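Reopening: Tn3-like element ISPa38 family transposase still failing for me.
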Amino acid sequence: MSTRFLSDEQVEQLRSFPDIGREELIKYFTLTPRDHAFLDAPGRGADARLGLALQLCTLPWLGFVPDDLEEVPQAALLRLASQLAVFPGALEYYAASTRKRPQTRSDHLKLVMRYLGWKTATPGGQEMKELEQFLLDRAMEHDTPSLLFYQATQHLIGARVVRPGVVTLMELVAAARAGAGSLTSEKVEHLLTGQMRGDLDRLLVQDAGLGMTRLAWLTTPAVEATTVAVKQAIEKLKFLRGIDAHSLDLSMLPRERRRFLATLGRRSTVQGLERRGERRYPILLALVAQSAVDQLDEVVALFDQAVSARESHAKAKTNEALAERAKQGEARQLLMDVILPVLADPTIPDEDVGAILRNGIGMQKLREVAAERWNPLPRDHGRLSALEASYSYLRKFTPQVLEAIDFHGGPGTADLMEAVQILRELNRVGGRKVPTSAPTSFVPARYADYLARARKSGDDTAFRHYWEMCTILALRDGLRSGDVFVPGSRRYADPGTYLYTPEQWEPRRAEFCHLVRKPAGAAEALGQVKDELHQALGDLEETLSGASPNDVGEVRLDAEGRLVIPPLSAEDIPAEAKALRDELSGMLPFVPIASLLIELDARTNFLACFTHAGGRKTTQSVELKRNILAVLIAGATNLGLTRMSEACGVSYDALAWTAEWYVREETLRDANTVLVNHHYALDLAKRFGGGTMSSSDGQRFPVRGKSLTGRDMNIHGGRVLSTTTHVSDQWSTYGTKQMVPTHREAHYALDEFLGNQTDLPIREHATDTHGATLVNFGLFDLVGKALTPRIRDLGKITLVRVDSPAATNALYPHAGPLLADRWNEDLVAGCWDDLLRMAGSLKFGEATASLIVGKWSAASRQNTLAAALKEWGRMRRTIHAARYLSDPLYRRRISRQLNKGESLHALRRDLHYAQQGTIVRPHLQDQTEQAWCLTLLTNAVITWTTEYYGMAIGELRGQGRDVPDELLSYIAPGHRENINFFGFINVDIEAELAKLIGGWRPLRPTTVTDAGTTLMLHP
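Support: Ran it again with your exact input. Result attached.
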């Protein structure tokens, strides 16, 4: 294993002074009175004091002292010289004297170390042994050399140990990585029996029946939920169980180590694994162990989707039948319009009614209408009957699913679990008749009549069909809500296992409550939320009492006491802001997208985030950077690697290898974080917003071919999938999620919000109605954040009160009647600690927010904790609604943020232009990586434009122009007219960097007229 994973340039940088930020300058280069006493020793001259002080401050900052002290950042030198009251040039004398007598420098460093309590890591010493153990422990968690190097430096600083040389530390990192591989093999050796080794080796052998290796077969997910796909998934699950993959216990390895090994196994070729020799076995063990869980989840997911597809088909058929029935009913309705006035007219004698109707309508028409049968519809309008037509189709895979999956039920599901067991036994023995004792309590009321009629008529076949379909549907719904779970699954596990246990939660409760500023006690929490409610209702009462029914533009009550919410008027953008925006856009240089990315990497080094999946050395050649950029552009623009190879002149094989090993979700996320953080630090970005608010919204993309994430949606003109993005108030996108377009976006709103790894201090999140569920209202508040959606038909939602109607109306005569329901505070109080435990599990990363939101949103009424969470959400929604209605500035701020997110859709569509924007990748992982490529390039455009807008503003101000700060918030950085996404894509890094002047492109020239306006001078 190579010990040199850093380039010579990087090694030199790590041996010298880096740039210093303001916070670091204040933190490390501020001398205390004790420091002054240490430095002001008798007989010590100004140059010695300055040199000694520089080492005193540098050691805690960097963990070592660079050889060339004269390279110290000028700001740090000036700050120290000012505090010591010495001339900064004294450092030159100190450097010269220590060059003549190096012992002086060594003695001073020893003095500093002794004063600060620092030590050196000598070979074989205790400090070195602790460092080696630390690196080995970290290498067991991940295998990225650069990250291990950084963690080692931070560990040494924390332990007050001087950092060894860069080469020495690289050798220690390499040794730790090798040791982690050996330790991994040692820890799993007891699992590698002769039988297991043979089973793992057979994964790499071409299977004649499959036409591929078992490894490729296992790692290729399904692309559609059909009978064949379900059966193939079950076959894979049985195969994995046949080699005991489901019972492998790899808990002796850290979770990240297991994930790394499994990822390495999925991405490696058979030849690559074979070349690893004995080292391939831990990789394959981790792969099959993870595959056993993934395959179990896939079987259940395919079962859910296949059943739901037939149910949707039945619904569509029912709707068509209802539409046809409505057409037929039109003739009867027209007859009633004629008959009823005659019957209701008291002046017409009874004996004349028949003659009048027969003569008026005509006997022929009456006979035609009477001849049409008009049977009453069942309670479900015939949907179960329509689904019964798919009974044979469902029977092709549901028996195999019931046989392969061990379903368990939670509280209130005993009858359903008994029915599943009965159905499983009927399938096993080939039974046709459902026992009379079979439970039916789980059957919805709308379907109960079908079973009752079949039982009454003695039609055992019909009863079996309806009862079995109801059982399958109830099982599907139970899996979605968590009332039914599958042991060993990740996605369909017992919801209680997603959360901290009470024992795990106890030591974390105080920290969590302090972090999110929530009381640990229910009484205090209820008191606080009631105070918030009364404050919000007081403001709403003032608004409603001050508005008359004729105040058209105000939130008001009409004459009947109904709430009227007028739409917000369009935001007035000052004409000066529009003119400034156009002017700034005209000053931006023209640039191809590849050149933009090359330039941005020179300032941010975001390409360094793309590390090899196998943990190999991270030194990136110019060719590797070029290939990574080409892959990113291919994914974002939807060109694909084949067409990208033609566009940039790099071979397809090189691009495919780069995409497989370097461009994956975690590296894309890391690179995106670098860009967002860089953008957040820009002065102009702070004029757009403080980074404290964000919004999420879905964008539909057309899909071609088979894909589990695609759905046919007439409203979007065909088959589509949805990409949900989280956008900050500074226009940067910090989160991206691929999802099925028919799923609620609310389920994923918290995922990226809580998973935000950027510097953005986001506290508030806006959505449209799709994100405004009661569960989301509750969870956002419990994790210390605020959900502030724009809700459609706000006046129709149920708001809550904490007192009787009479008492509430007495306090709030206008707002009180809007509060239609009593808040169940006893339910919340009884579950308060469990609510905190749930929120803490999300906040600390124990559980995934989308799983919790999805399960608890669909949970049955028997789930007390879910009911309490929704009750807390009802209170938070009421408070938000009261504030939203009473404060027009609050409404406009939410609307402005949502508009920012929606406006970026146009930029994404422009970037994602190839193949008419149609996604052709069938698998979720590939689609997710492509979505992150698009997000990364979107942020690159936003960041680059913000930088050059800032330069243009500086130039205008330098020309004497008045550019008010208050206009800058209207300058949206989504400008793209000067960026070329098309044509031949030349990714020539060295040539592009050579074009920059001081790292930047020149702005397009301007001239100031006598009137003080700026004109563009086009080339």
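The longest helix spans residues 280-344. If you still see a failure, please send the error message rather than a screenshot.
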